[in-house]
# Entry
Amino acid sequence: MDLLRRQKIATMDEMKATLGTRGDATVFRKLAKVSYRTSYSHRGRYYVLGETPYYDELGLWSMGAVQFSKYGTLRATAEALVHAAEAGYLVSELEALVHVEAKGAMLDLVRQGALERDKVEGHYLYLSADPATRKRQLRARQVLRTDTVLAGMAQAEVMADELKAAIILFFSLLDERLRRLYAGMEALKLGRGGDRKVADLLGLDRDTVARGRRELLTRDVEDDRVRKLGAGRKRTEKKRQR
# Structure
């Protein structure tokens, strides 16, 4: 499919126009000869060749606002991500990852027995259907901090100038890696739309905030501060007593 190789993604109508046909069947005969996926956003209207996406650590890839997953549909993606999550997901947390409304898909998965959910602090937490995994996720959720200095941003558009100044001062003291992780942590706590709010406040690129958030969710974080063996100041030998 030259069109898909040229522009990476395309709708059924675009492919029909390129092939000079009015029937979907002609397009599907062409697609049957290659590996392809449909988007889980935009009602599956977009197609991509299987060789094109470079999936991130969560198995997600996007082209502009169009979202694709190595798991296929939104339901399959939600099930896989929740099962792999260290502490399960609230709806808002999962939606911040997949960038589409996911509540309906998650409810369907619960009804089908593919996921479970428990009420935690007034919100439904979606968990793996596997009992051992679910128990571990609940235990991990219990130790997560729920307080945040940015939590008020979810309810108020305006933050006190003093608080903004304090946050920005603290942020300026961090190195590049810790800035990214701090921004990602605060975006997680805010839920849907958190990437944009934190990016606007701290003057960061939204992709940087999203990267920090994903690193925390997947625990893909290494402590660069740990010294390598033999590093650091040499020990001072004690002088011999004469």
Summary: The domain at 73-144 is CATH 1.10.10.10 (Arc Repressor Mutant, subunit A). The chain has three domains: 1-72, 73-144, 151-217.
